[in-house]
Amino acid sequence: MVLATALIREFSNISHQGRGRHFAGFEHAASPRKRLLEPRMALRLNVAAGDLVQVDLSDPQDHVAIMAFTDEGGRCEAAFGLPAPVPLLRSDFDSEEVTGWLVRQGVAREIRFTATSVTGVREPLVLRAPQACTLWLVAPAERTALVSARATGALVVMHQRAPDASALPDPLGDVREEFTVSRATARAFEVRRGEFVQIIDVEGQQCSDFQAFRASGLDRGQELMIDSTATRSMVRRAFPGPGLFDKFFDPQMVPMMRVVQDTCGRHDTFGLACTARGYEERGFPGHVNCSDNISGALDSFGVASRRAWPAINFFWNTWIDEHQHLLTEESHSRPGDYVALEALDDLVCVSTACPDDIDPINGWNPTDVHVRIYRPETRITRAVAYRSKEDAPMQISQHSAFHARLAPLTDQFAPARDLWTPVSFPSSGTLGEYWACREAATLQDMSGLRKYDIIGPDAERLLQKAMTRDIARLAVWRASYALMCDESGEVIDDGTLFRLAPDLFRWCCGNEESGRWLGKLAEREGLQVRIHDMQGSLPNLALQGPRSRDILRKLVFTQPHVPTLDQVKWFGVTVGRLNDREGVPFLLTRTGYTGELGYEIFCAKENALQVWDSVMAAGAEFGLKPMGSAALETIRIEAGLAAAGAEFAPGVDAFEAGLGFAVSLKKADFVGREALIRNAEAPRRVLRGILLEVDDVPRHGAPVFCGERQVGLVTSATRSPMLERAIAMVRLSVENAAPETKLEIGQLDGRMKRLSGTLCDVPFVDPTRERARV
């Protein structure tokens, strides 16, 4: 077994030093790429000779199975020093992806699911690739109950390219052609309808100007190219991105290209490609520039030369400030970031590697850009990059476990953390979904929420330290809404804590900072506890509305040792099965984010579609409808429920966020208690509601005025269908926060237009929360 300490040391010594192009004594190497291997799933890695692959097997129950294939389809585990493969049951993992890959490689007749099995080593498994090959890593997992002594979760896999290996990301599919655009140059190329173009920032922070022409137009002597103004007008954004508004348009507003994947998310469509005149006026006559490079590259296609080219400036970080100035700074792109576009017509394209070395747009150091062209049969799903924090490894957004049922119902998806989530369903519309939740029931995919299991003899002690609620009073099969605060009393995250056993808790929350904070506290306090990140292994649905219990009565079966459906009161928990004792298991909680009677269902990924189908079938007679995030936003504001980045944000403590009800100051000790006690004795700001006299919905952050003085700002606002007027939650100075106070919200720079309203308490609807308690 290759577990040599020297290899582990070597891997750990390859660390990021500043920008992506400087690492541990050698140039032009990408940082190790972090991947997550979830239970019953397989992960494919294309490795080159000298690459290092590390799998974290620190828990004695962690298990990984390894299959290695040469380019010819032969097995090569022995070349890694691994033992001979042993049979691996297809039922241990989802084998469809592996099977499909083998078929495409032409070795389907030799499919044998055998693999080297590694478990119980209590340390990282590190492999050095002796040759270029394909590694398949599998995390076998049995179909176990949701509540157990240990919940199996994702393994962390790190892939470090060899020092002399290319820093390019793995191809997205079948490459027809690829080439490098060297720094300070440009290259023109042809793309056929249905093909995909991938523009890759090889070393990070490198701008690439791009333009495309219809080939049929050039044949007629017409230069029909991407028009930035038409594009911005059509997509109603500064630039298109994967999702509903994903196309670049020509001047006739006819789409030319579709953005399929974008891992950077910061580009420019306002500025020209850099010009000779621009450099001359800054004191650099004769400086190489993108406009001249573009003209030279397009000359052979009969395109007329221009002194200044309009372009799509990929990876150029620009924005417009409050004074309408166009500003720029260093790019957000990392090594290997890319944009992938689908050609909607036969095109002639041109890409540059911008030569600008006199300001920060290329990180002061122009580098190369790489272009790949993929054949039309390549399957590239729409995706953006997700990073749990700014310097975290990139994850490509994925479809949730319920996507096969959601996709036929809507095209309106938006990223929610690392998953695509429906915004609205056209058959009902946002307003129809809203009223279904208020009067009948709705079903919503909430799988983007983060889930952590906190397990061990010191689990309660850790949570008492981390949470604002008294966790010692939380009974088994009960839940509590709680906060995590830092030492200053600012809210790190909020969520719902479920107690599933005396030493087993599940924290369902908004972001990964919860997991990092819990780990930091556990280490600081020396506690015997394990914080287990469930990753995507526990998708969940929110069944909300007054008929939700009626729907569940048709399909929930519970065993005698857990609460029955009718025994699950507000913030109660149980384990149910579909229809009978042999049915699909799921965790059922009486919780939600709507203020209505509601439940949440947590299940295994392989059972997700069956759960969705069963709930939708049971709910048909009660008017059950799927609901998206747009309707939920209106409902949660009416219910006075806080959101990250709105009611709680940096510089705002728990009381100022309107979350004082979730703070138990009588607890002996928790992080942030002293600051919150101090702030509670002398509050400066409070959260209030305001009922506006109009339907105009103010923006987040809009100023709130008392006369000519600003006394607060808007945290969230919507038009309430139930109240038939605009409403907002506002954070105000305490001196101006008395109920029934008349205030104004400023628009048009805060002064030229005012929206009058009257202060009230929140929630706006059902202030005693009787609906949820029914």
Description:
The longest helix has 13 residues, at 513-525. This protein is 16% helix and 32% strand. The protein is built from 15 helices and 45 strands. The chain is of the alpha+beta class and 774 residues long. Strands 12, 14, 16, 17, 21, 23, 24 and 25 form an 8-stranded mixed β-sheet that branches. It has a 7-stranded mixed β-sheet with strand order 35-36-37-38-34-28-39, with helices on both faces. Helix 8 crosses helix 13. The termini are far apart. The model is unreliable at 1-29 and 143-152 (pLDDT under 50).
Quick structural gist:
The chain has 15 helices and 45 strands.
Topology:
Layout: H1 5-13, E1 22-23, E2 26-27, E3 33-37, E4 42-47, E5 52-55, E6 63-69, E7 86-87, H2 96-104, E8 114-119, E9 125-128, E10 133-138, E11 155-160, E12 175-181, E13 186-191, E14 196-201, E15 208-214, H3 215-219, H4 228-235, E16 247-249, E17 255-262, H5 276-280, H6 290-298, E18 312-314, E19 317-320, E20 326-329, E21 337-343, E22 347-352, E23 369-374, E24 383-386, E25 395-396, H7 403-406, E26 413-416, E27 419-422, H8 429-439, E28 441-445, E29 450-455, H9 459-466, E30 478-485, E31 491-501, E32 504-509, H10 513-525, E33 530-533, E34 540-544, H11 548-553, E35 556-557, E36 573-578, E37 585-589, E38 598-602, H12 608-619, E39 624-626, H13 629-638, H14 673-681, E40 685-692, E41 703-706, E42 709-720, E43 725-733, E44 742-747, E45 753-760, H15 770-773
Parallel strand pairs: 17-24, 28-39
Antiparallel strand pairs: 1-2, 3-11, 4-10, 5-9, 5-11, 6-8, 6-10, 7-8, 12-23, 13-22, 14-21, 14-23, 15-18, 15-22, 16-17, 17-21, 19-20, 24-25, 26-27, 28-34, 29-32, 29-33, 30-31, 31-32, 34-38, 35-36, 36-37, 37-38, 40-43, 40-45, 41-42, 41-44, 42-43, 44-45
Helix pairs in contact: 8-13, 9-10
